[in-house]
């Protein structure tokens, strides 16, 4: 070898690239799990926020602050009412009550052009516990995904 040699040999470059490729291949599953866990946290938070807002709407209806008829149980007719706002009927100037800034999107819904509200499956207060085909009001929600979580439980049962 001469003393004026600069750079790496082809063998050194190939060994380095092989080591880098091996490290990258080992890291890919960890990145995938991180992404899934992040989406699972988003799902958990979205379900909690929407369910809390549904409960708050129900309490407002039972307290007489939100209009409801005698045959209604006090749940919103549509999910968007939580973010569009409802009139406080006890307010002299018909002040609006907003329970959510926006309806979160189901992070596991593979449903392209749907609105955030349309990414969820809805259950009515008069529906059977496992029937999320909608109805006259919104009592509960669940993910529309058919996938299972990292805990083995389908997202639709969270």
Automatic annotation (TrEMBL):
Intracellular or extracellular location(s): Membrane
NCBIfam families, per the entry: IV_pilin_GFxxxE
Record-linked SUPFAM superfamilies: Pili subunits (SSF54523)
Superkingdom classification of source: Bacteria
GO cellular component, as recorded: membrane
Topology versus the membrane: Single-pass membrane protein
Native source species: Rouxiella silvae
Official protein name in the record: General secretion pathway protein GspG
InterPro entries: N_methyl_site, Pilin-like
Pfam families, sorted: N_methyl
